[in-house]
Amino acid sequence: MLMHAAEQFRAICEEAGLAVTHQRLVIWEKLATMPGHPSPEEVYAQVKEEIPSISLATVYKTIHLFVDTGIFREASPHHGSMRVETNHEPHHHLVCRVCKSITDIPSEQLGFGGPLGDVPGGFLVERYAVDVLGICAGCRKPA
């Protein structure tokens, strides 16, 4: 049986130790359904349609709270502004250094990844996130 979005969000918040609020639910729903790697400003534009009184600062704070608690992750810092990672499948990123676009590429296509866990020096590997920097096909086309 599919869990209703609000029930799913309650379970996620309970696991993360967060209080459930209407604003957080709407922000989570928008993030969970937005394609790509949305910025807080893009999320704000979507949420504002449903909650006209919400502020951009509230959206930023909520996104940071979601990232800090592991509900979502921050995408590549090479983009130049905060982007939210909504794809929970193992993957890496192709980041265009010209237009700053971020494109997901499945982990197996890059052939990079290793076992999670302890590595020499006591570092605990939790996940792999490789950013491949280059120039996308759109930026390579001559004008």
The level of helicity is 25-40%
| The CATH superfamily title of the largest domain | Winged helix-like DNA-binding domain superfamily/Winged helix DNA-binding domain
- Gross geometry: globular
Span of the ends, CA to CA: 52 Å
What is the CATH third-level topology name of the largest domain? Arc Repressor Mutant, subunit A
β-strand number: 7
Q: Architecture of the largest domain, according to CATH?
A: Orthogonal Bundle
How many helices? The count is 6
Rg over C-alpha atoms, rounded to the nearest angstrom = 17 Å
What is the helix/strand order? HHHHEEEEHEEEH
Tell me the strand order in the biggest sheet: 4-3-7
Give the class from helix and strand content and strand pairing.
alpha+beta
- For this structure, the quaternary state is single chain
Q: CATH class of the largest domain, please?
A: Mainly Alpha
Give the uncertain stretches in residue-range form.
none
Give the SSE layout.
Elements: H1 5-16, H2 22-33, H3 40-50, H4 56-68, E1 73-74, E2 84-85, E3 91-96, E4 102-106, H5 107-110, E5 117-119, E6 123-125, E7 131-134, H6 137-140
Parallel strand pairs: 3-7
Antiparallel strand pairs: 1-2, 3-4, 5-6
Helix pairs in contact: 2-3, 3-4
Could you describe the 3D structure shown?
The chain is 39% helix and 17% strand. The longest helix is centred in the middle third of the chain and has 13 residues, at 56-68. It is built from 6 helices and 7 strands. The model has no long low-confidence stretch (mean pLDDT 87). A hairpin with a 5-residue loop joins strand 3 (91-96) and strand 4 (102-106). The protein is of the alpha+beta class. Strands 4-3-7 form a 3-stranded mixed sheet. A two-stranded antiparallel ribbon has the order 1-2. Strands 5-6 form a two-stranded antiparallel sheet. It folds into 2 domains: 5-78, Winged helix-like DNA-binding domain superfamily/Winged helix DNA-binding domain (Arc Repressor Mutant, subunit A, Orthogonal Bundle), CATH 1.10.10; 89-140, Dna Ligase, domain 1. Helix 3 (40-50) crosses helix 4 (56-68). The protein has helices at 5-16, 22-33, 40-50, 56-68, 107-110, 137-140, and strands at residues 73-74, 84-85, 91-96, 102-106, 117-119, 123-125, 131-134.
